[in-house]
Amino acid sequence: MSRYRILLADDSPQALRLGEQILRSQGIEVVSVTDGAVAMRRLNDVNPDLFITDIYLPTKNGFDLARYMKAQPEYRDIPIVFAAGPADVFEEQDARNAGADAILRKPFEASTLLSAVQELLEKRVNTKSADGPGGNLDRNSIRAAVTLALDSAMPAMIEELTERVVLALSHR
């Protein structure tokens, strides 16, 4: 599953760490956010193959995000997994009507999460393949790859620039 990218939105640090750990153990790229509005902004940059969202997030909840994605042509085919806390009360049919392709309970069980993710990703790949060749070389995919490369390179770049500025200032 290594060629996939997932946007994971959850305001629980424990759920984020567990989800990241499970998914990254399979070689999946994971971009994590803790807020619904941030998740919405990052959709274009990340261009995820799958979106996992907590049902109840600050600013925009999972229902809002799913409805938004399903209304946008560029996002409507991205599978959405709702992650619900053990005490979260909601109607499963409401979640499906909003656009959830799967609903999982937290804390994530590795096999359950990976099974749902794999099934939805395979389904999406089969759908994209049916649309014709070259679908994964679009502008959004390239932009997402560049963004992820910059995200991972940014800490080293900041450190090097900081060292250069400190060195330059110390030689005044």
What would you say this structure looks like, in words?
The chain has helices at 13-24, 36-46, 62-71, 92-98, 110-131, 139-170; strands at residues 5-9, 29-33, 50-54, 80-84, 102-105. It is built from 6 helices and 5 strands, in the order βαβαβαβαβαα. The protein is elongated. A 5-stranded parallel sheet has the order 2-1-3-4-5, sandwiched between helices. 27% of the residues are buried. The chain starts with a strand and ends with a helix. With 172 residues, the protein is α/β, with parallel strands linked by helices. Helix 1 (13-24) links the parallel strand 1 and strand 2 (29-33).
**Which assembly state applies to the chains in this document?**
single chain
Helix/strand order, N-terminal first: EHEHEHEHEHH
**Count of β-strands:** 5
Helix percentage range: 40-55%
Largest sheet: 5 strands, parallel
Structural class: alpha/beta
Outline the low-pLDDT stretches: 132-136
Shape: elongated
List the total number of helices: 6
Average residue pLDDT: 85
- Beta percentage is 5-15%
Topology:
Layout: E1 5-9, H1 13-24, E2 29-33, H2 36-46, E3 50-54, H3 62-71, E4 80-84, H4 92-98, E5 102-105, H5 110-131, H6 139-170
Parallel strand pairs: 1-2, 1-3, 3-4, 4-5
What key phrases describe this protein's structure?
172 residues; alpha/beta; 6 helices
Summarize this entry quickly.
By secondary structure, the chain is an alpha/beta fold. The chain is built from six helices and five strands; from the N terminus they run E-H-E-H-E-H-E-H-E-H-H.
